[in-house]
Design a protein that fits this description.
- It is a single chain.
- The protein is an alpha/beta fold.
- It is built from eleven helices and 20 strands.
- A ten-stranded mixed beta sheet has the order 9-7-5-2-10-1-11-15-19-20.
- A hairpin with a 2-residue loop joins strand 3 and strand 4.
- Helix 2 crosses helix 6, helix 3 packs across helix 4 and helix 3 runs parallel beside helix 5.
- The longest helix is centred in the middle third of the chain and has 16 residues.
- It is globular.
- The mean pLDDT is about 95.
- The structure holds guanosine-5'-diphosphate, 6-O-phosphoryl inosine monophosphate and magnesium ion.
- The site of magnesium ion has 6 residues, from loops.
- Guanosine-5'-diphosphate binds next to helix 1 and strand 3.
């Protein structure tokens, strides 16, 4: 029996999970999403094509690979069907390479309205949600009111839908200033549900178990990042699912003993989109330079991402919480033109130093930095570790020493082929 390897983000999302999953997929038979929903935007670049996936696993462009949307995912049928149509426009029919869990929860049109109403009511203290209805859909899941993909097949599905919608309308009436109209989206929603029925809805925990028993290689693809985890992220400025490796077990229905490698992805610096503490944020020209060099604009919402230096306090926490077995450093090339590169190794608050990621996500802390000489060289064409500039190798060695974890891949560009893969 094989194990499930995991790829997940160690920061606040957008680390480059889509690219890495696409790069690693040739070594796998099955790729699964285990949490989150269309709040995710995973970009893939190959040749002249570029694509942003929201719900479909990033193995979809590799022939012969099965892709599974697990029970831990929340699905908006409209967004999923749009995505499927776009994928099929540039590849082939994917009916036989995508399976959807019957236990995955549905995002209703009114979940989106509730998300928007709640954010508007929060004013300045808003989460900065992607407004895809993620929070309200997970609330209905844990509140035991949700509709699941398997319910679509029930004769009374529409009645169940109406019951939940009425509950939502009652909740929306608590926001008197918020006006909305769900009718247009609702039409699209039912049309998308009808189209979605061409895909198999399955008890995917059994499907995955049977793959593992046959010795198939299974990869789990995280969405968002560790610091957006509902329990261990910078609460309340988080998403509503467990983004940690622990979420793989509950989000796919596999036992903890079946988790294999945990590949943790991080950018060579940090970004965050939405509100919440970000200790190493640079709200100056250097931050703007990072944003421009890294094209740091959201793949789902287009919002400018907040940028800052690498934060080792947060990264070490993420390595610990996920049991990371190997690291993958993304967007190293973005730092090519920075004469000095900084890394936070501790936080200072009220004169006290700490290296432990705090409960409040480090609101108001002062980061303590170690400075590195920049490499000031274009590395995008380099494919062997030995050829990298010494200053970058020093940077990688420092991260490895601090995290006690090997950096297996150094990514040097958005394309599928722009990687330096190292053996131990
Ligand atoms: P995800 O949500 O973790 O899949 O990441 P996103 O797709 O939201 O954001 C990552 C962005 O960085 C995408 O535009 C990628 O194409 C791009 N990217 C990934 N790896 C690299 C890299 O090594 N260098 C550069 N310059 N861009 C990269
Ligand atoms: P990928 O998978 C970056 C952020 C939002 C907001 C908070 C809550 O592409 O890395 P939500 O819509 O979940 O209610 O938003 O989480 N967020 C992400 N940030 N990448 C993502 O996904 C994100 N998904 C949600 O910006 O701050
Ligand atoms: Mg993204």
């Amino acid at each position: 029996m094989t194990k499930v390897d995991v790829v997940l983000g160690l920061q606040w999302g957008d680390e480059g999970k889509g690219k890495v999953v696409d790069v690693l997929t040739p070594g796998y038979d099955v790729v699964c999403r285990f949490q989150g929903g269309p709040n995710a935007g995973h970009s893939l670049h190959f040749g002249q094509e570029s694509f942003v996936l929201h719900t479909v696993p990033s193995g979809i462009f590799r022939p012969g690979v099965m892709n599974i949307i697990g029970n831990g995912v929340v699905i908006d049928p409209v967004i999923l069907m749009d995505e499927i149509r776009q994928i099929e426009a540039i590849s082939s029919d994917i009916t036989s390479s995508l399976i959807i869990s019957k236990r995955a929860q549905l995002i209703l049109p009114t979940h989106r309205m509730l998300d928007a109403a709640s954010e508007a009511a929060k004013g300045k203290s808003k989460i900065g949600s992607t407004l895809k209805g993620i929070g309200p859909a997970y609330m209905d899941k844990t509140g035991r009111n949700g509709l699941r993909v398997g319910d679509i097949l029930a004769p009374d599905f529409e009645q169940k839908y109406q019951t939940l919608k009425q509950k939502h309308l009652g909740m929306l009436s608590l926001y008197p200033g918020f006006s909305f109209d769900v009718s247009e989206y609702e039409q699209k929603w039912f049309a998308a549900i009808a189209e979605l029925r061409r895909f198999p809805f399955k008890d995917t925990e059994f499907v995955i178990d049977s793959y593992l028993r046959k010795g198939a290689r299974v990869l789990a693809e995280g969405a968002q990042g560790t610091l957006l985890d509902i329990d261990f992220g910078s609460y309340p400025f988080v998403t509503s699912s467990n983004t940690l490796a622990a979420g793989v077990c509950s989000g796919l229905g596999i036992a903890p003993t079946r988790v294999g490698k945990v590949c943790g992805i991080f950018k060579a610096y940090c970004t965050r989109v939405g509100s919440g503490p970000f200790p190493t944020e640079l709200e100056d020209a250097t931050g703007e330079k990072l944003r421009q060099a890294g094209h740091e604009f959201g793949a789902t919402t287009g919002r400018p991402r907040r940028c800052g230096w690498l934060d080792l306090v947060a990264l070490k926490y993420a390595v610990m919480m996920n049991g990371v077995t190997e690291l993958i450093m993304m967007k190293s090339d973005v730092l090519d033109d920075f004469p000095v590169v900084k890394v936070a190794t501790a936080y200072r608050r009220d004169g006290v130093l700490t290296t432990e990621y705090p409960f409040d996500g480090g609101e108001g802390v002062e980061p303590v930095y170690t400075e590195f000489k920049g490499w000031m060289q274009d590395i995008t064409g380099i494919r062997s570790y030995d050829e990298l500039p010494q200053a970058l190798k020093d940077y990688v060695s420092f991260i490895e020493k601090e995290t006690s974890c090997h950096v297996r891949i150094v990514s040097v560009g958005p394309d599928r082929d722009a990687n330096i893969i190292r053996e131990k």
